[in-house]
Amino acid sequence: MKQLSAKQNIWQVIFASSAGTLIEWYDFYIFGSLSSIISEKFFPPSNPDLAYIATLAFFAVGFVVRPFGAIVFGRLGDIAGRKYTFLLTLLIMGGSTFAIGLIPSYHTVGIVAPALILILRLLQGLALGGEYGGAATYVAEHSPAERRGYYTSFIQTTATLGLFVSLGVILVTRTTMSTESFNEWGWRIPFLLSILLVVMSYYIRIRLSESPLFAQMKKEGKTSTNPIKESFGNKENLKLVLIALFGATMGQGVVWYTGQFYALSFLQKTMNIEFVQSNIIIAVALLLGTPFFIWFGGLSDKIGRKKIMLAGMLLAALAYFPIYATMDNIGNINNKQELKSEFRIESNSHRNDKGELVQVTSRIHTYDDQTILQETGDKKEITVSRTNMIYLILLVFIQVLFVTMVYAPIAAFLVELFPTRIRYTSMSLPYHIGNGVFGGLLPTISTILVTTYHNHLAGLIYPVAIALICFVIGLFLIKDNKGAAL
């Protein structure tokens, strides 16, 4: 396979690295985007709330093991090289995602279904734990010091774009078939499509050359023989790892997941917004917010990484309660006046997982602001008016802006914090603990808080507290190394 020149263009590097990372995030987040359906397919139907919490817990498992992936693949990346390590993680991620689309439902194989889901989520988490550090390091080591924040910010867009693409694929699939068909088998299509995306990305990445800094170091025999020991056995480097975790990535993680995944969960499970409409709200907000990753990344080259990241954490912590209170009020049908003349009954039938014909009767209510409530058995689903939909997009967009502030500069910040010989390992662990543990557990913890206290806003206690703690620690302990030599 012919490789690019050692002096390959920075945009070729960014495109190849970003394409693969975007696809890995797409693979990882399909599960979260379809969590409400997955809870119905792979868990016992006797307790829907418990099934949904179990699904979120499985989603969180993929995050919890990311630090282990960071150690395993970080070590490999610091010894064998950046390029081949993130090729390996790409294949593991793609294969696991494709396999999820093939697993039979709980009705077919019983407890085997959630057991297989758990195993594949573990593999996804391990793969993602090795992906980000390699891609960010690879781009940073090709970038000029004065533009490092700008160029690495393109890698930062991939997590949000991966979520956006997953939502887009789900929406296209959902709108090209009936609701019954999508719920029965159509939800598998986004998982199965993953294999095509992975093959394309692998072809793009295999043509890359190794990072010039790592290649030079390897040629001179200066690579680390034990990057794990050097990263965490050395007191000075361990101190930097802990500062990165508790002063930056911990807060960044909860802001990222609140502004995107918790927002989606809140729309669907708390406000009961209709499936397609809730995904459109998130997708449009993500699309509008994504350019700000690049803007804040470039701004960090001028004023530093620290100021932007900490400002994003503080603003998010102060704004979350009023934002979500407003969102909750929009979906509160008790505050709306029903148009009695629009009350109607609708009936339809479909076949369930067992092939049985099921008759479904729904009560449809229309309210004075054209919000529609559909009650089907114990399930309620709200379709909000166009005006309220725009308002919800704005409220989620504001949250995405906070995400761009905390996330855009963090790749450059982490790369500049650690030496080249152990950079992959050192930066990957705090990043994936901050995002995988503190951030990844957020949907589960927040849902449990809401369920326990029967208060729709109780789930915000966790991200607000973590963001404020991280802000205080970062304010006093983070040193900005903007433009430092690598």
From TrEMBL:
One of its GO terms (molecular function) is transmembrane transporter activity. Keywords: Cell membrane, Membrane, Transmembrane, Transmembrane helix, Transport. It is a multi-pass membrane protein. The chain crosses the membrane at residues 12-31, 51-73, 85-103, 109-129, 150-173, 185-204, 238-258, 278-296, 308-327, 389-415, 436-454, 460-478. GO terms for cellular component: plasma membrane. It is found in: Cell membrane. Residues 13-482 form the Major facilitator superfamily (MFS) profile domain. The keyword Cell membrane applies. Signal peptide: none annotated. Its main location: membrane. PANTHER family: MAJOR FACILITATOR SUPERFAMILY TRANSPORTER (PTHR43045:SF7), SHIKIMATE TRANSPORTER (PTHR43045). This is MHS family proline/betaine transporter-like MFS transporter.
